[in-house]
Amino acid sequence: MVNFFGNVKKDFKSYVLITLGALLVALSIVCFFDPNNLAAGGVMGISIIINHFFPILSVGILMLVMNVVLFIIAFIVIGGNFGGKSIYSAVMLSAMTEVISRIFGKSLMITNDLMLASIFGTLLGGIGLAIVFNQNASTGGTDILAKILNKFFHLDMGKSLLAVDFIVTLGCAATFGANVGMFALLCVIMNGFVIDGFIDGMNLCKQIMVVSTKNNEISKFIMDELDRGCTLLEGKGAFSGKNTYILYTVLNRKEFIKLKNFIKSVDKRAFITVTDSHEVLGEGFKDMFEN
Which residues are within 8 A (CB) of 157 and not within 5 positions of it... i.e. 6 or more apart? Predict the structure, then answer.
């Protein structure tokens, strides 16, 4: 029963974060990309191009229709490896884009400077996508097209994604001019760096090793106060020749500060090494089998 409610709470938090991520991406489209015709890859970019020729079809509706079609094709051609979170994320992104556009129209356009729109649109959208990806979901669209290219043309996923987005930016250049097309390509290039950087920041943990005469107190503090696990490794001092223990643990940044302050209070001569760990899988952290 406890596990059931724990999973419900975890899933609820995950869907809340996906909704937040989708909202940020939708705002990047409405405030920066769509008003400036920055068709920066993916279903969003294709929708902006089609909307230019058929204004009666809104970007949000076009994104929704294309994602539905692509998910159907994916289920037929690739199989049903697209989780409910990805479908939810794609639908929410399309719906939010449509609703915000309907309510506010072009009034949310923040700038008509292509450089500023490219930078801030990519930052806002990249952070939103990073939040979605960090919940093991995607917004559909480009991912599905890339998987289809991967299946039939044996291109790896990275090259497939780049190929799809590059074709879309070529369409942007042909529709809106080379100047806008180059800025759209710049958005595609920057987007990967923003997503990777933000995901690394969200998942950053501290890998800590401690050599101390107070290992019992320190390990008890880690287990009882921080509710984390730790491991004692046998070691031997090269200078003293004495047997000792090295305490090893992984904590988030807030927990590490608490541990550091505790160690200061019990053993000022303790030796501590700290390294950044960008991904931690296992009990107490991200489930390696989560899908």
Answer: 146, 147, 150
- Buried b / exposed e over 213-240, threshold 16 CB at 10 Å, is ebbeebbebbeeebebebeeeeeeeeee
CATH classification (class only), 204-277: alpha beta
SS3 40: coil
Non-local CB neighbours of 18 within 8 Å, separated by 6+ positions: 85, 88, 89, 92, 131, 132, 135, 137
Write phi, then psi, for 155 (nearest 5 degrees): -85, 140
> Which residues in the chain are classed under CATH 3.30.70.120?
204-277
Query: Half-sphere exposure (CA, 13 Å, Cβ side) for 16?
Result: 6
CA distance 257 to 99: 43
pLDDT in tens, 44-59: 899 999 999 999 989 9
Query: Are 82 and 15 in contact, with CB atoms under 8 Å apart?
Result: no
- Torsion angle (degrees, nearest 10) of CA 165, 49, 135, 209: 40
Strand partners, 208: 249, 274
Amino acid at 234: E
Condensed to tens digits (0 to 9), the pLDDT of residues 254-280 reads 888 999 999 999 988 889 999 988 777
